[in-house]
Amino acid sequence: MKPASRLPGRQHPQIWNSAAQLADIPIISTQTLIPAGARAVILAPHPGDEIGACGGLLQLLNNLDQPMLLISVTDGALAHPGSPLWNDERLRAHRPHPQESVDALHRLGIAAHGLQWVRGGFPEKNLAEHETELATFIARHLHPGDVVFSTWRQDGDSDHDTVGRAGALAADRIGVAFNELPVWAWHWPVREQNKIPWHRARKLRLDVWTTARKRHAMHAYVSQLSGEPASGIAPLLPRVILDRMGLPYEIVFI
Questions:
Q1: CATH of the domain at 37
Q2: Which of the given ranges, 114-118, 203-207, 222-226, has the highest pLDDT on average?
Q3: Structural domain harbouring 125
Q4: Helices 208-218 and 49-63: crossing angle, nearest 10°?
Q5: What distance in Å separates the CA atoms of residue 206 and residue 252, rounded to the nearest whole number?
Q6: What pLDDT digit, counting tens, does each position of 33-45 carry?
Q7: Which of 148, 224, 154 is nearest to 179 (CA)?
């Protein structure tokens, strides 16, 4: 997908609140997505992607005592490139990943020790150069019967796309189910909605409390919520992302 789809300034109208196709997406249950006893494997390219993509699903799985594996591909080391405020020393002191992710999971009602968690330590922003290695790494942690959830292969962000491709390859190698989660795609211009695979889309309903906890969890990523106006650095999590956290559903491409 062309990089332009990841909007500069991210101020275009959003597909997720204007596309007519949204009303026709079939509803799917958690139990249909992940059979009883199966392990759900969540692939997160960057810290916070697991919340933005499927913070609701994580809660529903936790409520069902479903086994889960979270694979954090990168540690988000390039949160504020060129920032005089977020230097290496301050990042180590105030943004000790995975601590923000631990806090986010806690806000969802999930204890960090309540799920398996693997950190890949891959370099952010150039994952495409390590795609083969990443696919092998992911496959090494998959078991027969797993159900994999990854960012969409055409999400419009290079790292998201790479994790999607690597996840699909790894799932195919092991012979397990593979699903994709759109993240940045929901913030494309409306004119690009015809590029969404609506025929694969399924809607997972979230109640008001699940939705509220998801939004609350995203606020755990303090370092991504505050920009630096004096330095011309915008927040990594723009308002449109936080607004989407309030939607009472999540979309999965099956």
A1: 3.40.50.10320
A2: 203-207
A3: 3-253
A4: 140
A5: 13
A6: 999 989 999 999 9
A7: 148
Q: Say how far apart CA 72 and CA 50 lie, in whole Å.
A: 8
Provide the domain count of the chain: 1
Q: Sort strands 249-253 and 201-205 into parallel, antiparallel or unpaired.
A: antiparallel
Token representation of residue 92: 């180590």
Q: What angle do CA 30, 69, 72 make, to 5 degrees?
A: 115
Largest distance between two CA atoms of the chain: 52
- Which residues fall within 8 angstroms of residue 210, CB to CB, at 6 or more apart? 56, 59, 60
pLDDT tens readout for residues 141-194: 999 999 999 999 999 999 999 999 999 999 999 999 999 999 999 888 888 889
- State the pairing for strand pair 68-72/116-119: parallel
For residue 71, give both structure tokens. Answer: 């694979």
